[in-house]
Recover the amino acids of this structure.
């Protein structure tokens, strides 16, 4: 059989009674182009460019290597050239793209291979341009995949097809070049990587990230706020991290419980470890301090950083009712003086 | 040349003497620098000396108040020293009160005031410590 004899219309058998279309016994499928467009858009939207490219390339590769296996096993080809040429011809017949070979030389024994050609009417470039407009890089991933698959099957070693021109990036037509993987320099890296089966999986990565987040959540929730009694009648509450509603409730409960248990007359709230403060945080802190005051404890706030001090003043947070001191050391001194004065007075 | 206002540390206090015309940019910068120094240096007082200033607008007046509040957040007391009588009158007439900022006649006065307080605080501290040591020896 010669390439010129190839007629997919005759080779395909339509079996409506079975609901099948077959090519030499292999089931073939016919899709609408716009439905593949939807699939492509979803792939790009949900998986990103790199993964979509890899998936499309693998898809094309299977089409090419599968077609080669079917055609070489079921038909007698007169020459190697006919067997090889059946690939581009079938690609054309399948309505994927119109292939015009410009240059083809190979030696099956030596395993050398080089092919160049023009692709016209690439369905892939058509839908890609429709979906995403003209881009900066070639887009016919399933086509290069097909060419790589077919030619690898034919020559019996790994061959990579790349696209040098593409309608998807604004060229008039697409152009491809095919060489064994070892003959390429780094210009074919993107196509080679797309074909390499990696262990990368988006869902696995997401699961791993999720696990990390859960771990961190656990760690954060365990970052409770201890209340320590550092002196007779003096409690210290060091706050680290972000103070939100949930946290502030915890802090308040913790502190009030400790005050009740120890009957401490002084509380030092140290915020050296608090990075950011907004009106809400300031408000929470004030509430905690007011609540402590209601129980009869005197509160001092220590360790405000210069940035936080500036923010508080700029947003007009009212800290006038609060005794603020430089650091925990000054706070303790202040409390001790207060306690002494109280004892004296009492 | 970019002009900045120097912040000088003298014993327990920071001294800022304003001797150039205050622009809004300069005031903003000063606010930030003072906030930084107050945190970085082991001080307990801040004196803003304004005897060379013959004009204070409401923005600068408010900024000085803010500086005092920021310093107070970090446990440092602020005294405004050497307010010119004419400036004082303008401030009062503008209604820009200096509430919350303590004032002193001049730098000397301000430092005296601060040192007096620091000495008193120190003395009290020592008393507390003495009592604590006494308690510790008992137990």
């Amino acid at each position: 059989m010669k390439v010129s004899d190839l007629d997919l219309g005759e080779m395909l058998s339509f079996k409506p009674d079975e609901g099948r279309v077959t090519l030499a016994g292999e089931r073939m499928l016919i899709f609408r182009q716009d439905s593949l467009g939807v699939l492509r858009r979803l792939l790009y939207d949900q998986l990103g460019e790199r993964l979509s490219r890899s998936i499309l390339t693998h898809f094309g590769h299977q089409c090419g290597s599968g077609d080669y296996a079917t055609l070489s096993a079921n038909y007698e080809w007169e020459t190697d050239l006919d067997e090889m040429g059946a690939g581009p011809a079938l690609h054309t017949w399948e309505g994927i793209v119109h292939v015009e070979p410009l240059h083809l030389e190979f030696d099956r024994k030596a395993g050398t291979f080089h092919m160049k050609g023009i692709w016209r009417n690439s369905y892939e470039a058509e839908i890609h341009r429709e979906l995403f407009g003209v881009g900066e890089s070639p887009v016919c991933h399933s086509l290069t995949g097909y060419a790589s698959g077919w030619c690898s099957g034919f020559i019996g070693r790994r061959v990579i097809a790349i696209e040098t021109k593409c309608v998807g990036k604004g060229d008039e037509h697409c152009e491809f070049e095919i060489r064994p993987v070892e003959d390429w320099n780094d210009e074919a890296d993107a196509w080679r990587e797309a074909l390499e089966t990696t262990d990368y999986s988006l869902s696995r990565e997401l699961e791993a990230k999720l696990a990390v987040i859960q771990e961190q959540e656990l760690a954060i929730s365990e970052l409770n706020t201890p209340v320590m009694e550092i002196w007779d009648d003096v409690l210290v509450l060091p706050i680290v991290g972000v103070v939100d509603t949930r946290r502030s409730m915890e802090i308040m409960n913790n502190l009030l419980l400790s005050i009740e248990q120890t009957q401490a007359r002084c509380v030092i709230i140290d915020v050296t470890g608090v990075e950011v403060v907004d009106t809400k945080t300031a408000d929470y802190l004030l509430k905690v301090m007011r609540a402590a005051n209601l129980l009869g404890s005197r509160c001092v706030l220590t360790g405000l950083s210069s940035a936080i001090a500036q923010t508080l003043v700029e947003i007009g947070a009212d800290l006038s009712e609060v005794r603020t001191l430089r650091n925990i050391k000054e706070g303790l001194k202040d409390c001790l003086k207060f306690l002494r004065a109280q004892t004296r007075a009492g | 040349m970019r002009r900045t206002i120097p912040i000088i540390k003298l014993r327990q206090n920071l001294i800022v003497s304003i001797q150039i015309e205050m622009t809004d940019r300069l005031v903003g910068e000063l606010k930030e620098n003072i906030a930084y120094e107050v945190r970085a240096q082991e001080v307990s007082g801040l004196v803003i000396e304004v005897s060379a200033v013959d004009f204070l607008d409401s923005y600068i007046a408010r900024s000085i108040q803010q500086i005092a509040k920021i310093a107070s957040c970090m446990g440092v007391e602020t005294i405004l020293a050497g307010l010119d009588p004419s400036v004082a009158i303008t401030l009062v007439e503008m209604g820009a009160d200096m509430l919350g900022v303590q004032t002193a006649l001049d730098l000397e006065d301000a430092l005296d005031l601060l040192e007096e307080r620091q000495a008193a605080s120190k003395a009290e501290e020592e008393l507390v410590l003495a009592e604590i040591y006494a308690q510790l020896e008992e137990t």
In short: Chain A is about 50% helix and 20% strand. Chain A has two domains: 3-201, 223-345. The two ends of chain A are 115 Å apart (CA to CA). Chain A has a mean pLDDT of 89.
